[in-house]
C-alpha cells in the first residue's frame, strides 16, 4: 500500500524491523567523528543519527522555530491544501525581505549574494551538491542536527584537514551577504514536515532509492545477507521515489526506508523549485539499506 510519494505504513515497509542488522551493536550508533556534541533540535545527534532512529522515528523539532513563526504555521494549518505553498512563499518573501534587500540593511554595490535565497540554493544543490550552495545546505544540517558532512567534493574524515577547511570556506562565502539563509532553511524544513504530516497522516517512512556505481564510495559499517548493508549517509543526500529513475544514475540501486522526519525537501513541496528526477533531499545518519542490481 503506497501513497502518491511512496509512503508506506510501518507494516508495509518491506523489511522485518526486528531483524535489522547490528541491532544493539555499536555499528548501529552514529560514529563519534560524524557528530557534534551539541545541536539545535530536540534530540542529540547520536540519537537522531542512529539505526534505532531509522526504525522508530520521532518528530524532530528545531529550537524556537515554531514559537518564533507561530503566525506562519497557524496560517498554513488554516489554508486550503492547494494554497499552502503560496502562503509559505509569501511569508518568506515578506519576512526576509527577499525582494527588498535594502530593507535588510544591504548597502553593497554587488547584489548577487543579497539575491541568494532558499529557492536558489535548493536549485543550486540539484545542479551540483558539492558546490558552494551545497556547502551551505550541508552546513545548515550540521548546525541544526549536529550531523557532520562526510563528503563535499572529497571525503572529509578529519575536521582539521584541508578538505574540511575548504568546505568551511565555501559555506561561509555562501552565507555572507544573504538574508539569514539558515533561518530560511529552518522554515523550509518546518513546512515540509507540516505538509508530509497533513498529506500522509499516520505514515512514518517512505521508500526511496539512490543509484550508485560503487559501494566503496559509501561508508559501510556492516554487511548482511541478501544485499543488506548498514551504511553512514552523508549529512544531506539526494534520493528519488522512482526506482527506475535511480537506475539512470548507477548500476546498483540502494533502497532505503527513510523516516519522514529526515526529509528536508522534496520535488512536490513547492512547484517549480525542483523539476524532474522526483528528487528528495534526505538528512543523513546510519541507515539499513538493500543493494540490488537493475
Automatic annotation (TrEMBL):
GO terms for molecular function: NAD+-dinitrogen-reductase ADP-D-ribosyltransferase activity. It comes from the Bacteria. InterPro entries: DRA_trans. GO terms for biological process: nitrogen fixation. This is NAD(+)--dinitrogen-reductase ADP-D-ribosyltransferase.
Amino acid at each position: 500500500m503506497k501513497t502518491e510519494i511512496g509512503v508506506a505504513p510501518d507494516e508495509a515497509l518491506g523489511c522485518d524491523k526486528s531483524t535489522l542488522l547490528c541491532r544493539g551493536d555499536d555499528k548501529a550508533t552514529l560514529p563519534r567523528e560524524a557528530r557534534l556534541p551539541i545541536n539545535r533540535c530536540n534530540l542529540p545527534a547520536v540519537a537522531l543519527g542512529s539505526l534505532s532512529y531509522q526504525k522508530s522515528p520521532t518528530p524532530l523539532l528545531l529550537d524556537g522555530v515554531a514559537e518564533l513563526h507561530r503566525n506562519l504555521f497557524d496560517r498554513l494549518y488554516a489554508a486550503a491544501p492547494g494554497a499552502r505553498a503560496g502562503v509559505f512563499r509569501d511569508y518568506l518573501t515578506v519576512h526576509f525581505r527577499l525582494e527588498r534587500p535594502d530593507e535588510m540593511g544591504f548597502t553593497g554595490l554587488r547584489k548577487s549574494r543579497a539575491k541568494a535565497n532558499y529557492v536558489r540554493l535548493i536549485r543550486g544543490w540539484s545542479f551540483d551538491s558539492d558546490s558552494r550552495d551545497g556547502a551551505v545546505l550541508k552546513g545548515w544540517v550540521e548546525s541544526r542536527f549536529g550531523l557532520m558532512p562526510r563528503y563535499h567534493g572529497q571525503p572529509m574524515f578529519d575536521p582539521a584537514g584541508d578538505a574540511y577547511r575548504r568546505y568551511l570556506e565555501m559555506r561561509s562565502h555562501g552565507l555572507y551577504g544573504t538574508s539569514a539563509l539558515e533561518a530560511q532553511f529552518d522554515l523550509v524544513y518546518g513546512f515540509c514536515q507540516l505538509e508530509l504530516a497533513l498529506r500522509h497522516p499516520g505514515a512514518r517512512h517512505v521508500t526511496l532509492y539512490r543509484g550508485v556505481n560503487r559501494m566503496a564510495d559509501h561508508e559501510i559499517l556492516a554487511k548482511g545477507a541478501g544485499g543488506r548493508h548498514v551504511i553512514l549517509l552523508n549529512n544531506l543526500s539526494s534520493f528519488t521515489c522512482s526506482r527506475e529513475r535511480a537506475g539512470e544514475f548507477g548500476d546498483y540501486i540502494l533502497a532505503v526506508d527513510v523516516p519522514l522526519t529526515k526529509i528536508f525537501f522534496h520535488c512536490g513541496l513547492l512547484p517549480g523549485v525542483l523539476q524532474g528526477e522526483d528528487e528528495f533531499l534526505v538528512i543523513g545518519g546510519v541507515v539499513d539499506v538493500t543493494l540490488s542490481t537493475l
